[in-house]
Amino acid sequence: MASVGPSAASTQPALPSGPAVFKTIPYAFILPEIVCGTWVWILVAATSVSLPLLQGWVMYVSLTSCLISLLLLLSYLIGFHRNSENWKVLDSLYHGTTAILYMSAAVLQANATINSEFSANAPLNYQLNSAASFFAFLTTFLYILHAFSIYYQ
């Protein structure tokens, strides 16, 4: 007969801290999320923003997500979570919400890419907007992977 005592609680995987964050799925996705999100922000900032309302939202989502993800990564690196199970819920909610926001930003960036095809200085802006769209969809995919892979640990 199996005992359901304190030893049963210790079978749950511990949240990583320190360098183990970079070796543990889904937490290893945080650094690529930050890097790809930074590329979105840089590439949109490098274009002549012809649709400020659309691309303003893209820049807001990418910059805010990069900063919050950086804070989350730093908190995992220094062990601020103290192995609390609430951090898994917080992490999943954050990454799920950010995936939805990034999907909206990626679609708006794709729309801005289509509109920039026929504008002045078209080749350069179109190429920058295309790259920003690619990284926006890639970042969305990374956030979705992170949010769902927490449940499969």
TrEMBL record:
The keyword Lipid metabolism is annotated on this UniProt entry: no
Pfam families: MARVEL
Highest taxon above the source species: Eukaryota
Keyword Metal-binding (UniProt): no
Gene Ontology CC: membrane
Membrane topology label: Multi-pass membrane protein
Protein's cellular compartments: Membrane
InterPro entries: MAL, Marvel, MARVEL-CKLF_proteins
Gene Ontology MF terms: structural constituent of myelin sheath
UniProt keyword list: Membrane, Transmembrane, Transmembrane helix
Transmembrane segments: 27-51, 57-80, 92-112, 132-152
Name this polypeptide is given: MALL protein
Species whose genome carries this gene: Certhia brachydactyla (short-toed tree-creeper)
